[in-house]
Amino acid sequence: MIKDRFGNLAYQLAALLLAFGVVSLILISVDASPSETYKNIFKGSFGEMRKFAEVLVAFVPLLLVTAGLLVTFSSGLWNIGVEGQVVLGAIATTWVYRLLLESGLPPGLIIALAILGGMVGGAIWAALAGILKVFGGVNEIFGGLGLNFVSTALTIYLIFGPWKRPGVASMSGTVPFPDEFSLPLLANLRISPWALVIAFVGIVVIYFLLQGTYFGLRLKAVGKNFRAAYLLGIPTWQYAMYSFLICGALAGAAGAVQVAAVYHRLIPSISSGYGYLGLMVAMLINYQALWAVPVALFFAALNIGSIQLPIVMKLDSSLSGVLQGVLVLFVLLAAGVRQKFGRKAQ
Amino acid sequence: MSQETILIGLAGVLASASPLIFAVIGETLSERAGVINLSMNGTILLAAMGGFAVAYTTDNIVLGFLGGMLIGALVALVVAFASITLQQSQVAVGFVLALTCRDLSYFLGNPYMGLPGPRLQALPIPVLSDIPVIGQLFFRHDVITYISFIAIFLAWLWIFRTRPGLMLQGIGEKPAAAYIRGANVNVMRYVYTIIGGALIGLAGPAFSLATRAGWMGTISGLDGFGWIALSITIFGGWNPVRGALGAYLFAFLQWLGLVLQPVLTQVPSQVLQVAPFPLMILTLLLVNIGNAEWVERTLAAMPESARKIFSKILRAMRTSPPAALGVPFERD
Nearest-CA distance from B139 to chain A in Å? Predict the structure, then answer.
């Protein structure tokens, strides 16, 4: 067993090296120095406290989304619609704010209700993908993708239609709500400790749900073998729906945090692709909750660190996406090589 | 609106659907062989950027199209290697490639942003283009649109009317049976995935060198077409002709959104542009609902006469994927 772990680690290290090798070649092909680039990404993410706070701002939604996806992956579902579930979380949060801002309730209560609303919004959107899958026979990948497009359209409709700023509607989003209604931030930094707490509670709850409960065990049974689980008397479609709802609620929380702690309003690209990135993280950690925190932090650091690349090196910031993608690709390929050739060698 | 404007609009619909048609045919061939190429969204972007870059640098538009096809074939090769040889999840590998190729296209395409590049010119076909209505609709396009018309027909002919096409259906439906009949299942899957990938790649330059000429990075507006093409492939029931109809329907709805914009002023234009997407889900629901278990149970409980009508309607709409789609084949 220990030897097995070690072998696995060796393959993953090889994948990591190969990924950095390939990305370095890509950088050389555009006449950029790889070492310079990696140094700039590191400086741009961990170089100053202010930048590290930005990394944490990106880390929170990414960790929440990853936590949710661990549940749907456990039950064998490819919840690609998670991107739209983040968006609907943000929309629902904004909606609750709009309803309650003038209500005279204490701001703390309004914030809590708004975030709760976001979780419900995300869960409802996930339930739609679930209903399409369970009762409509539509594969969750295609249903989810379609719903992602609809969620984007809905955001833009709200920003330019019913929720438009007085005067001119614009891509800058809805009217920001007053500061006392947002999650409090650390002094001079953009990160809210409350957002970090929400994210950590999310991943810890999911870890124990999957590792330590009967519910988690049955969920995994459904994921491993749908038919066998059904024959054993597990209500399979209910469990599929539960996992959609849990994932949607966590994705919704990610969207809620984006509104309540980061942007203080609804903007067109409110999710910034965190849903899709969460899928990458979940694949990279091979669906093990324990690794979610470090890998999500690493991915968030790559995203933030590459923001300044266009200015300092005239490179497009999409490099972070290339690096993340190549890394996940090589880890997947390494797992395949190990399964196919590693066993034969033993 | 005058008849002239409508005809020009409809001819535009036929032309603007051509990239989608290549992508749908490519995906259809790949999935017919049993391999889902989920990388399509990224492949199309990378091929659009690469095709434009090649055509711009060499000043040769044909090389640009070939470059796009080569990129599509190479990405498909990765999908094939991971899923056929390494037997990894096709969905996982395809999804990762979809995101990676997209970001790679933005990263590598940065120097080509907004450059004035070559563009395919319209090539009206003599005599035929003078036929009223039909000439205007079908015979005043560029070469790539004509090729898209021909490709629909050829793909249909290949799959349903030739011996190798029959074998192709076999390796996607019952690979074990096809193997016994002498087909080298995994080699054939490689071949079809790569050919399909090349066609998907062709969709890229069909955008960047023809219908939406140029490379504009993230604002090119091409992000998302790959996912659309994927839904259309299912809507088309893995039949090139039905898939092409889906692509035309989609292009028509997008055009309609544009035309209706001045009439429906209270609806933001961005909403009309995405209006086809919910319709796409609805059609997916319609073609899939016949596969759901509760529908069968409800049908069984219906009186004889009603059941006949309903099951006939459902069967007409219903499509089912190739039985061995996404399932690795091992001979033993």
Answer: 34
CA angle A47, A52, A54 (to 5 degrees): 130
Distance CA B140, CA B125 (A): 7
Distances (CA, A) of B225 to A136, A252, A325, B305: 24, 26, 20, 42
List all residues of chain B from 189 to 218 with a beta carbon under 8 Å from chain A.
217
Residues B56, B112: contact at Cβ < 8 Å?
yes
How far apart are alpha carbons A72 and A78 in whole angstroms? 7
A187 confidence band (pLDDT: 50, 70, 90)? confident
| Separation between Cα atoms, residue B321 and residue B325, nearest integer Å | 7
Element (DSSP H or E) covering residue B9: helix B3-16
How far is the alpha carbon of B109 from chain A, nearest alpha carbon, in Å? Answer: 9
- Judge whether residue A136 has pLDDT over 80: yes
Give A-chain residues touching B291 at CB under 8 angstroms: 137
* pLDDT over threshold 70, residue B188: yes
Length of chain B, in residues: 332
Domains defined along chain A, listed by start? 1-32+316-346 (no CATH), 49-314 (1.10.3470)
Residue A34 contacts B, CB cutoff 8 Å: no
Is A145 at the interface with chain B, CB within 8 A? yes
Q: Which candidate from A134, A157, A340 shows the least CB-CB separation from B87?
A: A340
For A257, the token pair is: 């945090």
Q: Would you tell me how many other CB atoms lie within 10 Å of the CB of residue A276?
A: 20
Cβ contact (<8 Å) for B294 and A149?
Answer: no
DSSP-H helix ranges across B123-184: 134-138, 143-161, 163-173, 175-180
Neighbouring-strand partners of residue B122: B142
pLDDT value of residue B1: 67
Give the C-alpha separation, A53 to A343, whole Å.
Answer: 44
**Residues sharing a CB contact under 8 Å with residue A190, sequence separation 6 or more, in sequence order:** A53, A54, A57, A262
Q: Chain B window 258-297: which residues touch A at a Cβ cutoff of 8 Å?
A: 266-268, 270-271, 274-275, 277-278, 280-281, 284-285, 288-292, 294-295
Q: What is the pTM of this model?
A: 0.92
Q: Of A177, A173, A151, nearest to A164 (Cα)?
A: A173
pLDDT band at residue A235 under the 50/70/90 scheme: confident
Scanning A58-97 for CB atoms below 8 A from B yields 78, 80
Alpha helices in chain A (DSSP H): 2-29, 34-46, 49-74, 82-100, 107-136, 140-160, 193-212, 214-224, 226-231, 236-257, 274-284, 292-305, 309-313, 319-337, 343-345
- A258 pLDDT exceeds 90? yes
Q: Are A33 and A278 in contact (CB under 8 A)?
A: no
Q: Among all residues of chain B, which has the CA nearest to that of A286?
A: B92
ipTM given for this complex:
0.91
Q: Which residues of B touch A324 (CB under 8 A)?
A: 99-100
Is A337 in contact with B86 (Cβ distance < 8 A)?
A: yes
**pLDDT for the residue A58:** 96
Which residues share a beta bridge with B142?
B122
* Dist. CA B36–CA B30, nearest whole Å: 6
**Helix, strand, or coil here: B122?**
strand
Q: How far apart are CA A266 and CA A261, in angstroms?
A: 12
Q: What whole-number distance in Å separates Cα of residue B96 and Cα of residue B76?
A: 13
Residue B231 and residue A103: Cα distance in Å, rounded? 45
Q: What is the mean pLDDT of chain A?
A: 90
Amino acid at B103: D
Q: Is B115 on the interface with A (CB under 8 A)?
A: no
